[in-house]
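COURSE: Structural Biology Practicum
ASSIGNMENT: Worksheet 4, Part C
STUDENT ID: 0417
INSTRUCTIONS: Below are two proteins. For each, the amino acid sequence is given first, followed by its structure token string. Answer the questions at the end about the second protein only.

PROTEIN I
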Amino acid sequence: MDDLSRFCCLNPDCPEHGKRGAGNLSVTSRYCPDKARRMLRCRCCKARFSERKGTPLFGSHLPAEKAVSVLHHIAEGSGVRKTGRLVGVSRETVARYSRKAGRHARGLHDELVAVSPPYP
């Protein structure tokens, strides 16, 4: 049985939107060459989405370990060229993943600021 408790429906119009472990998700199919990634479906609103939707790895063609390694090197202060050499990807790939992770982090920050209580 697939553990879906860490996922939630991403459809903002769904009554179960954002509720983790609500029991409304099921695996409809698997994709990618080794069938490791899952397509999820909300039983409530019938929306389908990838388990990577809403993460910096959505749309990634690199193996997850390599993408995480790229981001780890960038976070540690390695340059784009050095990271590309160490991980074995092009510098354009490093720059793209860095921008993608930055946009994702900015979106999360803005969300958290919007729901945080005002400063006293």
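PROTEIN II
(use this one for the questions)
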Amino acid sequence: MDFRGPYVDGPPPEALSVDAPSLRAFGWRELRRAGAIALLGTVAVLLALARRVLHVGRPARQTWIAAICTGIVDAFMTLGPTFVKLGQMIASSPSVFPKPLADACLRCLDEVPPFPAAEARRIVEEDLGRPVDEVLKQFDDAPLSAASIAQVHACVLHDGRDAVLKIQRPAIRERMNRDLRIVYRIARLIEKTKQGKLVNPVAVVEDLHQVTNEELNFALEAYRQSCFRDNISAFGDNEWITAPEVYWDVCGPRVIAMERMYGVPLDEFDELRRRGVDGELILRRGVKVWMEAALVHGPFHGDVHAGNLWLLEDGRATYLDFGIMGELPPDHRDAVKDAQYTTMIDGDYTRVVRAWQKIGILGPDEEIGPIDEVAARIKMVVEPMLELTLGDVSLSAMMKQQLELAEEYGAQAQRELVLVTKQLMYFERYAKGLAPDYNMARDLFLVKNVFPDAVAVAVADRGLSLPQ
């Protein structure tokens, strides 16, 4: 059967725009929902504490703090996608949030309940205009996975290709934006406290609001995925890295059809070692593609956690789930490139100081003092850390040193760089499991297409050989 969906020629330009409703609107629906959240959260925590007292359903040695955190996550799971996503953010940032809470929130990464297959079929039919059984040769009602915003079903196209459908949860846009308006009100109250000003909760919620509405735009996600896949081959040397092909003829506003990939997540370290996989080489190839995306092409994958980078059965690695993408403004991209050039090529930290001044991390000369002295101070702090292998790196110690340096010069945090830093920390976690002796900060292979001439000279001068 020759089926042609609404996006057979790609989504129209208007479908790629992100319309994020105002966070400031607040009415009776939000007020009723806020009351329900408060009640359910209180009940969930009290039940968790009761289970702690009675030793029911949880380890008997669970601390009171752990029990409270368990109750909070129980509430998150019941309250739905917005709070599950909040839990995922907490679980993915253990250095920012209290460890008991971050540990409890790991459930939000793995235990999201699916929505009924009948609802999934209804959404496909509404978006594509025909019943699932007419659009596809085969559709599996049991989802392969379920997440906060969507779930994934295996299917077979009429031409016999294995595929998956990513189907958005029903009525999720209105629910999530309503919940975010409530969280925004809470964040504004928190920001009035002394501790709240330090973490800037309003900015966190505003970023979550923007990212969430981008994730809810499936036309934009599919378009970005397709562009990322095309950009991988731009230099002709990334054949070992891929991304699923988007099947546009079976895509709609809430449905993405794509190539099915077979493999294992890159954080299944024991399984990869059992297979005799060269973990360091796979990681280097994957990070190289990500660097090229961020520093050359523009849009980069903004969520490279364990479930989104796989080793395929044919030996390639693939990126998955393009719901969160980032793109640095040109001046910030140049600043990151300047920092990379300095640490990998010539060690000229005055370039870093100038780049940081341009984007507002550091103030003007009259505020920070002589450039050479500032550059020498940064070099003294940064260079010893860059010489460590990832097995020897302590992220907490690195962060402490960097915070002390930032305080010394009155440095200002840059929201534009947060997503980049988070992805590099994910890659470091992979490296600690796959290649603890690997030094990612000095690997010229990662930037061979970012600084082709300089890398070629450095490789020759240092007598190095880079992988293919």
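ANSWER KEY EXCERPT:
Q1: The first strand starts at residue 138 and ends at 139.
Q2: The chain has 20 helices and eleven strands.
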